[in-house]
Amino acid sequence: MRVTISRKAHFNAAHRLHRKDWSFEKNDAVFGKCNNANFHGHNYGLTVSVTGKIDPETGFVLDVKVLADIIREEVEIPFDHKNLNLDVPEFQDLNPTAENIAVVIWNKIKKRIQSDFDLEIVLHETDRNFVTYKGE
């Protein structure tokens, strides 16, 4: 029997959608106002879901307190109130689109949970725009 537990979190961060290897004109045409040279910010909403077998001793798939600590350490502390392009090493050469942010978060959290657990990340960039990543 496999069960999914989920934990919500949020962080506020600035970013700029921009490719260094493209001209300003091409970046502007593709990314529009999201290519603002002075960056722009979002109040990101995050849902992290872990699916696995219930431990017969604890009754948990994973202690939600443990999951909350992982999210705090891997996402909230390094991303909250940061400029993703400038302050977060994972985005030094990776365009911080919502899709790429979700994949980075998935990779950071996946390293911290049991290998037989499934992991799903849902990242809300706005109330209407969100991405889901479940791994390869």
Automatic annotation (TrEMBL):
Binds 1 zinc ion per subunit. The keyword Amino-acid biosynthesis does not apply. This is 6-carboxy-5,6,7,8-tetrahydropterin synthase. Its EC number is 4.-.-.-. It comes from Flavobacterium hungaricum. It comes from the Bacteria. Keywords: Lyase, Metal-binding, Queuosine biosynthesis, Zinc. It catalyses: 7,8-dihydroneopterin 3'-triphosphate + H2O = 6-carboxy-5,6,7,8-tetrahydropterin + triphosphate + acetaldehyde + 2 H(+). It is an enzyme of class 4 (lyase). InterPro entries: 6-PTP_synth/QueD, 6-PTP_synth/QueD_sf. PANTHER family: 6-PYRUVOYL TETRAHYDROBIOPTERIN SYNTHASE, PYRUVOYL TETRAHYDROBIOPTERIN SYNTHASE. The keyword Transmembrane does not apply. Belongs to the PTPS family. QueD subfamily. Pathway: Purine metabolism; 7-cyano-7-deazaguanine biosynthesis. Pfam families: PTPS. Its cofactor is Zn(2+).
